[in-house]
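Data availability (excerpt). The following record was deposited with the supplementary files.
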Amino acid sequence: MKKEQSQDYPFVITYLSNRYRLIECRDHIQWILQRRDKNVPRWRGIYYFLNTHSMSRIFRQFDLDDGVVGQLPERFESRFKTVQREQIKSDDIVLATDKNYSRTKVFLSSMT
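Predicted structure:
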C-alpha cells in the first residue's frame, strides 16, 4: 500500500490547491489535511479531523476553499472503505455467476 505522504496515495478526497490536499487516513478512521513540501515531492499531515466543524474552521484559517466540507458527512465516514465493501459484494456476484456458468457448461457437455 502507498504511504500517506506519497504523491500517488490512493485515498485522496480532494486537492485544495497545489500545496494542500485532504485525504482519508490509511486506517480509514479520520481525514487529514496535508501540505506538500516545497523541495521534495512528499505530503505532510498538518491537521487531523473527525468532524467537519473543526475542518471548516481550519480551512478558513489557511484561506482554503471550504466548499468540499459541505459535501462531506458531519462526522467521519470512510468513503473508500464503503467502495471496497461494494466491490467485494460485486465480486461475489461475478464469482457466483461464473460458478453457475461452469455448472451449466458441465451439465450441457454431459448430455452430448
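Summary of structural features: The chain has two domains: 1-77, 78-112.
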